[in-house]
Amino acid sequence: MDVYFYEAFAEEVAELKRCLPATIAAGYTWQTIQESGHAQPPARLISIRTQSVIPRDWKLDGILSRTTGYDTVTGLAVPCGYLPLYCNRAVAEQAMLLWMALLRKLPQQIAHFATFNRDGLTGVECAGKNLLVVGVGHVGSEVVKIGRGLGLNVRRVDLDTSVSDVSIGEGLPWADIIVCAMNLTPQNRGYFNYDRLKQAKRGALFINIARGEMSPTADLARLLDEGHLGGVGLDVYENEKELAVALRAGQGTFPLAGRANVICTPHNAFNTREAVARKAQQSAQSVVEFLKTGKFLWPVPAA
Q1: Per residue in 30-88, pLDDT tens?
Q2: Most buried among 19, 101, 155, 197, by the most CB within 10 A?
Q3: The predicted structure's pLDDT at residue 302
Q4: What is the pLDDT of residue 231?
Q5: pTM for the full model?
Q6: What is the residue extent of each domain of the chain?
Q7: pLDDT at position 303, please?
């Protein structure tokens, strides 16, 4: 077998089969490596997403991470690639979906349909509100475009001063909506901790569509309990590898799930027809290139 794809859901498998040359022998599973129970790799080239744990004793020629981030494969002693361009718009639109749903109390609206009762459902329009985008890379720049198109006042925080308007200390007290769109690095783990988000305006919304390790769950819970954060929208989670496996097995819980002012989605921001098609095409191109040259089209930067 030439390549084996882990964490590949049905629609993605169909697109991968359409894009891969018939000469390449490929295998697929929706499971992570740890869920699959594989003692040895089915192929010397494997592809994962965010939830697989690479066994240290596996002898591999290469790993393709079908993700825009590469934190899960950084520092490995094997060539690794990733897909930085396929889902920028899709993820940015999910950020908008989350903040709009929270502003308009969508979970409560759905719950109230059974009684057709509008009490307590008064929401907020987003036009004229303040949006702070933290991390202005491929995804963050799309969030900025969407925010401006909706009439939000937008400010940006980034290490690149050419795309940064304010410091995080200036932006948090100003913002009504805070979107985390940073790449995860060793330096920004726990970035949106209790002390930092306590600087935010009371009642602000916090949205994370990047990596859950940047926003500790216990700190978010404390800020919600204190009423300091008005709502939280998450597509990514601290300890997501373990959480996802446990939830799929019916054995896990997430402490913020079920709150009226919290919306949780299953790391699905990337998942549009357009993005899945682009991901499959770029994955196929990367696999073909690696099998031919031993190098990925988009290699993971050196740690």
Answers
A1: 999 999 999 999 999 999 999 999 999 999 999 999 999 899 899 899 999 999 999 99
A2: 197
A3: 76
A4: 98
A5: 0.93
A6: 3-86+273-293, 88-264
A7: 65
Q: Is the pLDDT confidence value at 254 over 90?
A: yes
CATH code at 3-86+273-293: 3.40.50.720
Give the amino acid at 44.
R
Q: Does domain 88-264 have CATH number 3.40.50.720?
A: yes
User: Do residues 157 and 199 make contact, with C-beta atoms less than 8 angstroms apart?
Assistant: no
Could you give the CA distance from residue 157 to residue 41 in angstroms, rounded to a whole number? 41
d(CA 192, CA 206): 10
**Cα(103)–Cα(132) distance, integer angstroms:** 15
Would you say 288 and 21 are in contact if contact means Cβ atoms under 8 Å apart?
Answer: yes
Question: Following DSSP, what letter does each residue of the chain receive, concatenated?
Answer: --EEE-S--HHHHHHHHHHS-TTS-EEE-SS-HHHHT-SS-SSSEEEE-SS----TT---SEEEE-SS--GGGTT-SS-EE--TTSSHHHHHHHHHHHHHHHHTTHHHHHHHGGGT--TT------TT-EEEEE--SHHHHHHHHHHHHTT-EEEEE-SSGGG--S-HHHHTTT-SEEEE-PPP-TTTTTTT-HHHHTTSPTTEEEEE-S-GGGS-HHHHHHHHHTT-EEEEEESS-TTHHHHHHHHHTT----TTTT-TTEEE--S-TT--HHHHHHHHHHHHHHHHHHHHHS--SSBPPP-
Give CA–CA dist 121/141, Å, rounded. Answer: 32
- d(Cα 122, Cα 104) in Å, to the nearest integer? 7
Q: What's the pLDDT band for 111 if we cut at 50, 70, 90?
A: very high
Q: Tell me the pLDDT tens digit for each residue of 174-183.
A: 999 999 999 9
